[in-house]
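Q: What would this chain look like folded?
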Amino acid sequence: QVQLVESGGGLVQPGGSLRLSCAASGSIFSINVMGWYRQAPGKQRELVATKTSGGTTNYADSVKGRFTISRDNAKNTVSLQMNSLKPEDTAVYYCYAGVVRGWPYNEYNCWGQGTQVTVSS
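A: My prediction, written as structure tokens:
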């Protein structure tokens, strides 16, 4: 079994910053894509930012220029630096990893438990 554990969520004022972190543990051969999704009440879960093991990044248009994703392949960790936060960023943020396990080396979608981010005055 693979576990993803997030940390760093909380309450912040508009214009403030937060840094989310996620660590993967368990039976892992490699992780192809790792990143963050979010879900607000009444809305579908949406991609925020992802990064491949080769370094290719993908950001939602709504967060480009404000959020930065980074990862450490050797430690199986990923983080999300969130700057200039807006009330519309309020959501539960979920860590995602496309995990490759042992033979036959198939890829599995793994999700963290989620961490609440609230942007409010």
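DSSP finds no helices and eleven strands in the chain.
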